[in-house]
Amino acid sequence: MGEKRVAGILSRLPRDKYQIMNDLLIHHANGHTSQIDHVVVSEYGIFVIETKNYSGWIYGGANSEYWTQNIYGKKYQLYNPIQQNQGHVRALRRILKDLPSDMFISIVAFSRRATLKNRYLDNVVYWNQINRVIQSYSQKRMSAEQVQHTFNTLQEANNTSKDSRKQHVHNVRGQIYKSYVAVSNGYCPRCGGKLVLRSGQYGNFYGCSNYPRCKYTHPV
């Protein structure tokens, strides 16, 4: 539902300046896949948008593995959407190898059902602010021909097979389970270091013993 709402919001962008793709599934290194909610291609950059339809208080750090959703005192975990979208950006960069890394602009967007407690983070916004953020980038970085070529390349890379999409969901669940097992046994799922109890702005949390080389964190 959230992705459909955001797709509708993006459709209000001027069509002569922005080309929009919704729900991309692309293959990249080692047989992995990435499912990307929205990509907007323009002369001003490539905007990669991760949509979240959560309620309650939402908070967490840029380098945290998980963020916290607080609903009337009950806390739940969600995978850090900034990290999630950075993975999407990396996948797109592998396909669009000729473009510089700063051409890709990550945006994480929440519904107004949520209250964002980490508004200091760049481009973490509400749905109704997405178009304003996109249109705030006014320096042209690509020609109209490059925009069309980029859009066509992404269309060709997009896998619309239902079986591939089911397999992607299965793989993601497997990765989540492996991470859960590592954390349950007191180990960092990123590098294998031990998890150490620490305190921070939002209370106690577990951090990797290999910090600062590894910045993995996990809520208590």
In short:
Helix content is 30%, strand content 33%.
Task: Provide structural commentary.
The chain is of the alpha/beta class. The chain folds into two domains: 2-160, Trna Endonuclease, Chain: A, domain 1, CATH 3.40.1350; 182-220, no CATH class. The protein is built from five helices and twelve strands. The strands form three sheets. It has a five-stranded mixed beta sheet, with helices on both faces. A four-stranded mixed beta sheet has the order 6-5-4-8. The longest helix has 23 residues, at 162-184. It is globular, with a radius of gyration of 18 Å.
Break the fold down into its secondary structure elements and pairings.
Elements (H helix, E strand, L loop, with lengths): L1 H9 L7 E10 L5 E10 L2 E8 L3 E4 L6 E6 L2 E6 L1 H15 L8 E7 L3 E3 L7 E3 L3 H6 L8 H14 L4 H23 L10 E6 L2 E6 L8 E3 L1
Parallel strand pairs: 3-7, 4-8, 7-9
Antiparallel strand pairs: 1-2, 2-3, 4-5, 5-6, 10-11, 11-12
Low-confidence stretches: none
Number of spatially distinct domains: 2
**DSSP strand (E) fraction?**
25-35%
CATH class category of the largest domain: Alpha Beta
- Main sheet: strand order: 1-2-3-7-9
Number of strands: 12
Number of distinct helices: 5
Instruction: Tell me the overall shape.
Output: globular
CATH topology of the largest domain: Trna Endonuclease, Chain: A, domain 1
Biggest β-sheet description: 5 strands, mixed
Percent of residues in helices: 25-40%
Structural class: alpha/beta
SSE run: HEEEEEEHEEEHHHEEE
Distance between the ends: 31 Å
What does the average pLDDT come to? 86
| C-alpha-based Rg, rounded | 18 Å
CATH architecture of the largest domain: 3-Layer(aba) Sandwich
